């Protein structure tokens, strides 16, 4: 973001963030990081259930563009929408980003269940309780509860926790089979965002007085 700011000079374009996660050092959302470096730009976050490969293959996909600036969200909606990609708008940047970040942690846990040979009952319970703890933290941070029933909440969580293309789910499967985290990460060219987000989410929840039991146990598995 700092390099982007220096390269823009006096220009102030609309910024659309498509990254999902939290800044480890500060627990900040990525929209907050961008706003710190680009205070005069409008920031919109684009999120939802969207494996990159399937978007590239032009499979029908739905996303949500969130910004406190309605015009900025609508602009992103128009720019990214096409015959295969439908974009909805929202004001809830907190909820949309929280759902996009924490679903990776729940997906890690879902992969662990698969790797342990557990069945659909257990996976359904995990996903449902995972959504509950994401919503609990969201409520404490002022997010809209309806966000977690939508594309950036339930939609993205179900995709990442059950889809074979999920990097976080596949990492969880490998962990459950007894492989070391460092060995798995050393072999990967892609990023499993849930690894760093798990610990950051637990820290963020502690600051808001909220319990995240699934994220806490995933953190213990990963780092302890």
How many separate helices?
Answer: 11
Strand arrangement, major sheet: 1-4-5-6
Question: From N to C, what is the helix and strand string?
Answer: HEEEHEHEHEHHHHHHH
Distance between the amino and carboxyl termini: 32 Å
Radius of gyration: 17 Å
How does the major sheet shape up? 4 strands, mixed
Shape: globular
Count all strands and give the number.
6
Based on helices, strands and strand pairing, what is the structural class?
Answer: alpha/beta
The proportion of strand residues reads 5-15%
- Share of helical residues: 55-70%
Low-confidence stretches: none
Return the average pLDDT rounded to an integer: 94
Report what the structure shows.
This protein has 224 residues and is an alpha/beta fold. It is built from eleven helices and six strands. The chain has helices spanning 2-8, 30-37, 52-56, 70-80, 93-115, 120-140, 151-162, 167-176, 181-187, 194-207, 213-223; strands at 15-17, 22-23, 28-29, 43-47, 61-66, 85-90. The strands form two sheets. Strands 1-4-5-6 form a four-stranded mixed β-sheet, with helices on both faces. Strands 2-3 form a two-stranded antiparallel ribbon. A hairpin with a 4-residue loop joins strand 2 (22-23) and strand 3 (28-29). Helix 5 runs parallel beside helix 7, helix 5 runs parallel beside helix 8 (167-176) and helix 5 (93-115) packs across helix 10. The longest helix has 23 residues, at 93-115. The chain starts with a helix and ends with a helix.
Give a summary of the structure in a few sentences.
The protein is of the alpha/beta class. 58% of the residues lie in helices and 11% in strands.
């Amino acid at each position: 973001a700092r390099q982007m700011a220096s390269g823009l000079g006096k220009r102030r374009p609309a910024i659309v963030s498509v990254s999902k996660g939290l800044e480890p050092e500060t627990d900040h959302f990525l929209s907050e990081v961008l706003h710190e470096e680009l205070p005069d730009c409008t920031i919109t976050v684009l999120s939802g259930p969207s494996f990159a490969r399937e978007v590239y293959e032009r499979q029908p996909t739905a996303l949500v563009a969130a910004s406190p600036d309605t015009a900025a969200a609508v602009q992103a909606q128009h720019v990214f929408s096409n015959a295969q990609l439908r974009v909805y708008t929202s004001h809830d940047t907190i909820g949309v980003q929280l759902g996009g970040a924490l679903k990776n942690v729940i997906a890690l846990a879902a992969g662990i269940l698969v790797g342990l040979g557990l069945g659909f009952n257990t996976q359904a319970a995990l996903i449902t309780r995972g959504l509950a703890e994401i919503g609990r933290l969201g409520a404490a941070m002022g997010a809209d509860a309806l966000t977690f029933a939508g594309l950036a909440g339930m939609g993205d969580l179900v995709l990442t926790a059950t889809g074979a293309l999920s990097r976080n789910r596949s990492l969880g499967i490998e962990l459950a089979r007894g492989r070391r985290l460092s060995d798995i990460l050393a072999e990967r060219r892609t990023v499993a965002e849930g690894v760093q987000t798990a610990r950051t989410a637990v820290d963020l929840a502690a600051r808001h007085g909220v319990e995240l039991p699934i994220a806490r146990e995933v953190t213990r598995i990963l780092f302890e």
